[in-house]
Amino acid sequence: MPLLVGTIVLTVAVTVASVWIGGRLRGPALSQGVRRAALVLLCQVCAVLTVAVVVNDQFEFYATWDDLAGSSTGDAGDALVPLTSPGHGFQASTSQRFVPFGQDGVRVVDYDGPRTHIRAPVYVWLPPQYGQPAYRHELFPVIELLPGYPGPVHNWFTMLNITGLLTQEMARGATRPAILVAPTMQLAPGLDTDCTDIPGGPRAETWAAEDVRDMVTANFRARRDGAGWAAMGYSEGGFCAAKLAVQHPGQYAAAVSLSGYFTPTAQAVTRSPALLKANDLLQVLGRHHPRVSLLVMGTRQDSDTAPDILRLRQVVRAPTRVFSSILPTGGHNYGIWSSMLPAALKWISSKLHDPRRLH
Q1: How far is the C-alpha of 53 from the C-alpha of 273, rounded, in Å?
Q2: CA 55 to chain centre
Q3: 8 Å CB contact between 177 and 170
Q4: What angle do CA 255, 187, 180 make, to 5 degrees?
Q5: What is the sign, positive or negative, of the torsion defined by CA atoms of 291, 241, 125, 85?
Q6: How does DSSP classify residue 267?
Q7: Terminal CA-to-CA distance of the chain, rounded, Å?
Q8: What gap in Å lies between CA 11 and CA 312, rounded to an integer?
Q9: Beta-bridge partner residues of 124
Q10: How far apart are alpha carbons 243 and 255 in whole angstroms?
């Protein structure tokens, strides 16, 4: 907020000062023209900077200067605290250390994936029931949350407030308690992977499907069986969620795509015909029919996703099941995804089988 207010004040001040100075310039006409052009250029630079900061404030593309420069190491240093408070029912069986994020009980850890050697933040939220005595022997289902690109995965907790919504839905009895885990998927500055294992690059799919999963099951009372896991994402994250379920049906029971697509668009994938064929869900589901359930949601006004939903329904065969919802209006933004979330959470909760207990 200080940066946002500061850029607005700076733009107004520079514009006013330029008008005042421009009317008082003296000297040869050429010199005056050059100096006036410089003042106009300075005003334009300030205006563009303000717009950029406003857009970043709205969509949170970059959270820090290190994010913007691509130099963030994700190391929280001495600020990290263990997520092992007995009073809250947290149980950690490994050396992973978590730091609070926000005010809703979300925690974040910089996790180093043993398979992929990717080190990136992973956000975890435990439902209130996790720490209650009645649930101390309960294994909780997990919903893995995937973000769009570009943009930070923590937008699930800030822009979409999924923890507040899930808490409300649980109170109404519409959903069951579940652990939320949101791994960072923007794994290299400027590189869009479409959640794919890129040859010579980050193994994004393995990171999300295996490394992150192992971290969650090792640290928390989380279900290990595929029937207790689901994925959900918006925009590119919708493609990622569907991809994880389709490519790893033994590890996920269901997936929800909010305004997602089903054919990769990232250049890192499309430039390789073999890689594209292996990751184009429309082609994959034409050849294979995994036992998973997919909920795909979009709007008629979103020309990038609605046609893909119709094409997906044409290629899917049992035992794969597809449920779809195409709203008549709405664009490609957080507002429309927020409106989709209550139905999506209710649906995804119904696909996660009954809770399991520790023996």
Answers
A1: 38
A2: 18
A3: yes
A4: 40
A5: positive
A6: H
A7: 50
A8: 48
A9: 107, 181
A10: 9
What angle do helix axes 2-22 and 29-59 make, rounded to 10 degrees?
A: 160
- Partners of 107 in the beta sheet? 100, 124
Question: pLDDT tens, 132-150?
Answer: 999 888 999 999 999 998 8
> How do 293-299 and 229-234 pair as beta strands?
unpaired
Best CA proximity match to 145, nearest among 195, 219, 188, 95: 195
Tokens (6 digits) for 115: 């398979």
Q: List the structure tokens of 78.
A: 């001495």
Order the strands of the 321-327 sheet from edge to edge.
Answer: 99-101, 106-112, 119-125, 179-183, 142-146, 229-234, 254-258, 293-299, 321-327
DSSP, res 139: E
Neighbour count for residue 326 (Cβ, 10 Å): 15
Averaged confidence pLDDT in the chain: 85
Q: How many CA atoms lie within 13 A of 283 on its CB side?
A: 10
Give residue for tokens 């008008």.
19
Please give the DSSP secondary-structure letter assigned to residue 211.
Answer: I
pLDDT of residue 185: 94
Q: Which structure tokens are listed for 96?
A: 């992973």
The answer to whether the beta carbons of residues 61 and 150 sit under 8 Å apart is yes
Q: Which residues, 6+ apart, have CB-to-CB distance to 125 below 8 Å?
A: 104, 105, 106, 107, 157, 163, 179, 180, 181
Residues in the chain: 359
